[in-house]
């Protein structure tokens, strides 16, 4: 059976297949239309029309969020989608998770645009990634430095003469 998601242009029949599959999926998850749309970061996917079909990024988000594959979503269905773990109701995403999903979706659109903006974004992402990793490394070093300072202060509190150059007078380091 032909997968409508592989087509560049959809007919009304294709659109009906897609919306029907979304309804099957939504009903199987026990979600209202607004809840379903919110989970994928779209204002109302059920109100979009044939001229404004969902982007490939939105379809990918639907597949990932609800653990379905594009073959199931893009062919006529009368049954619930097969789930890898038999649980189609993952924990509701937090606002942060939704924001990250939308940012990734938008980032993908820009990166795939084959424009100067896509190239600039890729350069910026690489720079920010390096900066974040350097910041993490710096935090680790700061913690280690603080720990060493605390150790020095602890050693300073030892009775005079008990410690000399990090060793007890008897030569033991215990």
Total helical elements: 6
Radius of gyration: 28 Å
Q: Number of DSSP strands? A: 2
User: Span from first to last CA?
Assistant: 75 Å
Structural class: mainly alpha
Strand order of the largest sheet: 1-2
Give a short synopsis of this structure.
By secondary structure, this protein is mainly α. The protein has helices at 12-29, 33-39, 56-65, 70-73, 95-111, 116-156, and strands at residues 163-164, 167-168.
Task: Give me the secondary-structure topology.
Blueprint lengths: L11 H18 L3 H7 L16 H10 L4 H4 L21 H17 L4 H41 L6 E2 L2 E2 L6
Antiparallel strand pairs: 1-2
Tell me about this structure:
The protein is mostly helical. It has two domains: 4-112, no CATH class; 116-159. Helices cover 56% and strands 2% of the residues. It contains six helices and two strands, in the order ααααααββ. It has a two-stranded antiparallel sheet with strand order 1-2. Strand 1 and strand 2 (167-168) form a beta hairpin. It is elongated.
């Amino acid at each position: 059976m032909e997968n409508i998601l592989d087509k560049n242009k959809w007919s009304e029949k294709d659109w009906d297949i897609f919306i029907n599959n979304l309804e099957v999926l939504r009903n199987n998850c026990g979600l209202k239309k607004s809840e379903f749309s919110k989970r994928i970061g779209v204002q109302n996917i059920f109100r979009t029309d044939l001229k404004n079909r969902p982007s490939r990024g939105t379809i990918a988000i639907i597949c990932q969020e609800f653990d379905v594959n594009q073959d199931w979503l893009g062919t006529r269905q009368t049954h619930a989608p097969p789930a890898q773990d038999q649980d189609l109701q993952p924990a509701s995403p937090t606002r942060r998770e939704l924001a990250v999903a939308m940012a990734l979706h938008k980032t993908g659109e820009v990166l795939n645009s084959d424009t100067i903006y896509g190239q600039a974004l890729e350069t910026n992402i690489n720079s920010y990634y390096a900066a974040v990793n350097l910041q993490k490394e710096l935090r680790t070093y700061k913690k280690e430095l603080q720990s060493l300072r605390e150790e020095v202060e602890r050693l300073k509190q030892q009775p005079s003469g008990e410690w000399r150059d990090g060793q007890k007078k008897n030569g033991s380091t215990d």
